[in-house]
Automatic annotation (TrEMBL):
Cellular localisation: Endomembrane system
Record InterPro entries: MMgT
Membrane topology field: Multi-pass membrane protein
GO CC, alphabetical: endomembrane system
Family membership noted in the UniProt record: Belongs to the membrane magnesium transporter (TC 1.A.67) family.
Keywords: Membrane, Transmembrane, Transmembrane helix
Superkingdom of the source species: Eukaryota
Cell cycle in keyword set: no
Transmembrane segments: 12-31, 58-76
Name the UniProt record assigns to this protein: Membrane magnesium transporter
Organism: Meira miltonrushii
Length: 121
């Protein structure tokens, strides 16, 4: 498999399944937290305490989501100037029309170049 094929290939089924499973676990932990808080408020318990198993499920779900994201993400690419200029020709690099001066702005900035003496002829 060439480097280009590897970079453009889709994530594997296992990686996507890991991401889906982690998302389900994490969402279940969120729902369990909501239910636990609701029950404790209905019973009139002042200090709401989230059980340890829900905390552990949340951390585990987050870990599995991160693992799935790591496996489904595309590889990082270089963002240096050298890697950008490696793809361009010298004509593309030197073609900078924004630096071309088509007309001189001297008269606009400094007035006309013809001098008129104020009192001398």
């Amino acid at each position: 498999m060439s480097e280009i094929e590897r970079l453009s290939s889709k994530p594997s089924f296992g990686a996507r399944l890991t991401l889906l499973l982690g998302s389900i676990i994490f969402l279940h932990a969120a729902y369990s937290t909501y239910e636990s808080v609701s029950v404790q408020k209905a019973l009139g318990i002042a200090a709401v305490v989230i059980p340890f198993d829900i905390k552990a499920e949340s951390v585990f779900g987050l870990f599995v989501v991160l693992l799935g994201t790591l496996f489904t993400a595309s590889p990082l690419r270089e963002i240096t100037w050298a890697s950008e200029y490696r793809k361009r020709t010298i004509d593309q690099i030197d073609a900078r029309p924004s630096f071309v001066t088509l007309n001189h702005r001297g008269p606009l900035l400094f007035g006309t170049s013809t001098e008129t003496s104020s009192g001398k002829q």
